[in-house]
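Hi R.,

Here's the chain you asked about this morning:
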Amino acid sequence: MASKYSVIATREVKSTAGKVHDLLVNVGRTEEWNPYVEMDPALRSEMSDQKIGVGAWYKYESKKVGNGRLELISETPSVITFKLEFFNKKTELASTRYMISPGSSADTVTVTWEMSGEHAGFRKLLWPIMNGVLGKAFERGLEKLAALVE
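And here is the predicted structure, written out as tokens:
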């Protein structure tokens, strides 16, 4: 039986919502802040010709972090959603959302990175460990994103 999972990381950044949004919807800039590229410098990637907006995609292959594909499926000024496919022993689907909301002061915004999906079997048993690993990776990604927009 499958069970639902969710990983969430949040960071307040000194930037505008528009600047954060523009970075997140540009798959051509994914490798500038994606923590998984840092984890495996040998990661191979490919991108759609269209780099910005709905329909843009980013595909990666890595011996260390696995294989997958992100596709931007919807965007508003405050929510950007990607379909995420993991291509390992079998294809697994997840949803990745970035939410941009007002920060604690007029010159900040809060960025939330959430991935959710379902897992079953052995992966379900490993979830407590994986949740911690993914959470730390998301925090590192948001740290790198902040450095680009601040």
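One quick note: Strands lie at 3-13, 44-47, 57-62, 66-75, 79-87, 91-102, 109-119.

Cheers,
M.
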